[in-house]
Amino acid sequence: MSDVKTLAIEKLKLLNPEYPELIEAIVVANKKIYLSLKTDKTKIDKFTRIKLQIEKELSAIDGIDSVSVSLTSHSESMQSKADTRAVTSGISEVRNIISVASGKGGVGKSTISINLAVAINQLGFSVGLLDADVYGPSIPKLVGDRQKPKKSKAGKILPIQKYNISLMSIGFLVPEDSPMIWRGPMVITAVSQMLNDVEWGQLDYLIVDMPPGTGDVQLTMAQRVPMSGAVIVSTPQDLALIDAIKGIEMFKKVNVPILGMIENMSTFICPNCKNESHIFGFEGAKVEAKNQNVDFLGDIPLEIDLRECSDNGKPIMLSKTDSTVSKKFLEIAKLVKSKIEDNSNSEKPNIIIN
Ligand SMILES: Nc1ncnc2c1ncn2[C@@H]1O[C@H](COP(=O)(O)OP(=O)(O)OP(=O)(O)O)[C@@H](O)[C@H]1O
Ligand SMILES: [Mg+2]
Q: What is the DSSP track for 131-188?
């Protein structure tokens, strides 16, 4: 991929010898080129034309699926620097970034993120978990920990270490009851900083627990973070599925591979009478995965134990290792791992920062 980077810069030079000067950062990952250009705010029309010209030119490079050029004006340079570095330094030793997402809220993204993180760790990999939900951070509660992160000698934030997972969440940084009245760009910056300014170190996998929805914030994240793939969570009911499809489309739009769908709360077995009921419908996500031509990774039943372990701050993967749910998470983790390994493009991003 470093050839692609060199080639891209050469092509820019041919278009206009001054273009390489404008490059703030260039990242090649997952058959995508992410380019950030220094822009003069007063000449936005001119720079928009340059952006389109560059996107067209670089898209023609062999093996590249898409090109994303972001324009950053000088007055925004602090933020844009944080944003571009976000796709670079803090995660430069992270081999694979996987986002756990769904268009809909409350379907179990955070629950699945933490248990998947533990399951992948149990397969022998080093794992981190980033809570990208700035408005409703869940990870501190799910791991039963609210300690404040410390700083490293280099001034970076050290992730919280719990259950052998490196964790970061805005919930570790601000008091639980303080409301987050942040606008979109600030959210992006906050997430960028949790990627960049955190000393994630060497990790095989970084799981990103995405906030609900498919708005600008989620789209920008999907675009700017060099993700190896996305796992989509849905309950089987139609309403959740509609949003899950939006989620799939969002990732497809920015060329993030969909690793597959997980059906959460798929079935409920009454602990007393052992009768099975399908509270949110039956196999809806499984059927939809087929319709969407994405893999089905597995189903997680609606389980009181799962909810209780989450509320008690110790994931079911650690507190009830022999439970059906834990075994299912382990199977899902194996599938995710093999899908990532199959993806020949799951290379480490290649970075230049000017
Ligand atoms: N399979 C399950 N069985 C029982 N309870 C579950 C299950 N999955 C999730 N829950 C519970 O449902 C609630 C919502 O789950 P969670 O917070 O993981 O969803 P989310 O998609 O991350 O929500 P948000 O969109 O707000 O971020 C939590 O109380 C969680 O413990
Ligand atoms: Mg959540």
A: E--SSS--HHHHTT--PPPPBPTTSPBPPEEETTEEEEEGGGTS-TT------HHHHH
